[in-house]
Amino acid sequence: MDQFLQALINGVMLGAFYAAMMLGFSVIWGVMGVINLAHGEFIMLGAYTTWVLNKDFGWEPFYAIVLVFPLLFIVGYIVQRVLINRVVDQPILVSLLVTFGLSIMIANAVKLAYSADPRLTDTRFGGVWNVGNVTIPVTKTIILGLALVIMASLWAFLNGTRTGKAIRAAAQNKQAARIVGIDINKIYALTFGICIAITGVAGTMISPTLAVHPFMGAPLTLRAFAITALAGLGSIPGALMGGMLLGIVESMIGIYVDRIGTNLAIVAAFVLLVVVLVTRPQGLFGGLRPIEQAEQL
Amino acid sequence: MTALATVDSKVRTTRNKQIALAVLFLALLIMPLGTQVADQTWVTNSRLFQFTQMFMLIALASNWNLTGGFIGYVDFGHAVFFGLGAYATGVMMTNQHSIQWPFWPAVIVGAIVAAIFAVMIGFPTLRLKGPYFSIAMLGTFVAMREIVRVSKPVTGGGVGLTLPPYLNRALFYYLTLGLAAAIITFAWWIRRSEFGSSLIAIREDEVGAEMRGINTTLHKITIFVMAGFLTGIVGGIWAYQNTFIDPDIVFVDSRTIDLVMMTMLGGLGTVAGPVVGAAAIYWLRDVVWAAFFDWHLMIQGSLLIAIVLFVPSGLVGLFRRDGSGTSLQRLWGRWLAKQGDEPIEADMGNDAPTDQGTQP
After folding, report:
1. From CA B35, how far away is CA B293, in angstroms rounded?
2. Is the per-residue pLDDT at B42 higher than 60?
3. Contacts of A263 in chain B (CB under 8 A)
4. Residue B82 belongs to a domain
5. Is the CB of B130 inside 8 Å of chain A's CB atoms?
6. How far is the C-alpha of B231 from the C-alpha of B239, rounded, in Å?
7. Predicted structure pTM score
C-alpha cells in the first residue's frame, strides 16, 4: 500500500511537470496548426539558462524564472517571425521538417557551447518530508505548485484578457478573426512567444531534478505529443489530466515492473497514445479546435 | 516546332537518358576492378566502402519514398525495419543455443521479420492520418530500441552482438549495388503500374480513392510491408558488413530523418528523387564532415530548413519541364520580378497574398 501511495505521489508530481511542459506545444498546435518538433529544445534552453545562472552567478534555480520567462519570450517571438511564420499555412510535413531542422540546430549549438555532459542545478530547497512511510521531496512539491500556477495563469490569460480572447478567436477561425480586426501575424508571434516562455520556465523548474544535457529535448517532445493527442489541442484541463495519466503510468511501471526502470515508460506512453488515437481521435477532452483541421497533410 | 518534331525529340531524350544510365551502371559494375589494376589507383578499398554506404542510403531512401512519397504517409520511424533486419540477421548468425546460420538465409529471415512487424504495426498506425502516423512511427522506433535493449537473452542487450567478420569489400559493393538497382527498378515499375497510380490517388485524396473503388487499406498495408521487407534486407547487409551491432548504433535517431532529408532534397514521390538526394547528401556530408566536424550537424539542420523552404519540389523538380519551362527558370523569373519590385503571384498556399493582416 505504501509502495502504491509512493508511486501515486511520484506520478502526480511527474505528471504536473509533464502538463506544464506540454502546454506550449499544445497551444501552438491548436492556434496555428504547427507541430513544433523543436519543443523539447526550448525546454532545454530554459534549463541551460538556469544552469548558467545557477553555476556562474549563484542564483537559486527557481528564482531564475524571472529572467528565463522574458528571455525565452523574446526568442520565441523572433523564431516565429523569422521561421515559423513562413510555414504556418503550408502542409504539415513542411512545418514538421522545418521545426525538426531547428531542433537539430539548437541541440548541437548548445552541445558546442557547453559539451554534452549532463548537469544538475543546486537548489537550497532540497530535503524531504516524511508522511507515514511515504516520502515527499520538497523540490518536486515546488515543481507541482509552480506547474499548477502556470496552468491557472495561462487559463486566466486565454479566457480573461482581450489578447487571450483574440488568440482563441484566431484558433477557431482565422478568416473571421481577421475580419473583426485581429492582426493574425502579431497574435501568432505573441502566442508563440508566450508558449515558448512557459516551455522555458518548465525547463527551469525541472533543472534540479532532471539531468540537463543538449539532447534531453527529444523524449520530452514525444511525451508532449502523446499528451496533446490524449488531451485535445490547447485544452488546459485536458493537459492536466493527460499529464497526470502519463506521469502516473510511467511511475507505476517504474516501481512495479522489475529491472526495467523508466526506459520502458516511453513505450507505455506510446501504446497509450496509439490506443487513444485509434479509438478516440478527437482526444479525451476536446480542445481549441477540432483535431481534424490539423490532420490535413 | 511541329508536334512530330516534339515527339521525336522526346523519344531522343528518353533514349539518351537510357544510354547514359546504362553507361553509368556499367561503369559502376567494372569499378571494383580498379583495385586489381595497380597499387595506387583512385579506386581503393575505402573508396569501395564509401560507394557501398552510398548504395545503402540510396536503397533506404528509395524504400522510404515508397510510403513517404507514394502514399504520402510520412514515416518518422522507418529505421525500425532497418534495425529489425539487422538484429534478426545478427541473432540468426550468432545463435548461441543452436546452429549458427550462414549469411544468406539469415538476411532473408531478417527481412521477413521486418515484414511481419510491418504488418503488425501497419494495421493500427496506417489508420492514423498525417502527423499522428508520423509520431506513432517515431514512437514505435524509440520503443523498439528500448525493447531490444531489455531483451537481453536474445539480443545481447546493451552489450550488442559481434557477427563473424567478413572483409570482402567488393562483395558488399556488388551486393548493395545490385540491391539499390533492384529497388530503383521496383520503384520505377510501381510508379508506372496501376497499383502505383492507386497509391498516388490515395496520397492525393484518400476518401476519393476509397469512393473510386480502391481498397485503400490493402494498398497502404501492401506498400508498407514491401518497404519494410526491402529495408530489412538493407539492415541485414549492414549488420554483416559492420560486424557489430548494439541498440544505439542500429537504432540511431538520425537514420530515419536522414532518409526524409535525402528524399526531400531529391524530390518527394519521384523515382529519381531519393537516388539523387541520397547521393548528393552522402558526398556533401563526406566533405562537410571532414572539414567542419563539430559543425556538421548544425549545417545539416540548416540545410534541412533551407531545402524545405526554398526547394520544396527537390532537385529533380528543379529541372523538370512542365508548362512554362523548368521550375528553376520560374524561380529565376520570380527573383527577377522581385528585383523589379513587382507584386509576385504566390503559387503556394491559397491565402498567402492576404497574409498582411487587416489593420483595425
Report:
1. 29
2. yes
3. 146, 149-150
4. yes
5. yes
6. 12
7. 0.79
